[in-house]
C-alpha cells in the first residue's frame, strides 16, 4: 500500500473519531440542559426524567461501542489489505 493510500485511510479514521467526539459533546450538552431544568420537578416527574436520561445515556454508550467496533474492523481490514 502506498503512503498516499495509508494517509487517506488514516484521515478517514481520524474524521470518524472526530465525529464521535462531536456526538458525545452534543449529548453532554443536551443532558446538561435536561438536568438544569429538573430542579423544579418533584416526585414521579423527577423519577421519569432520570429514567429517560439514563436510557439515553445507555443508548448513546451502546451506539458508541458499536461504532468503535465497526471502525476497528474497517481499520483492521484496511491495514490487512495494506500488508499484502
UniProtKB/TrEMBL annotation:
GO terms for molecular function: transmembrane transporter binding. It comes from the Eukaryota. Signal peptide: none annotated. Transmembrane segments: none annotated. This is Uncharacterized protein. GO terms for biological process: negative regulation of protein localization to cell surface. GO terms for cellular component: Golgi apparatus; membrane; trans-Golgi network transport vesicle.
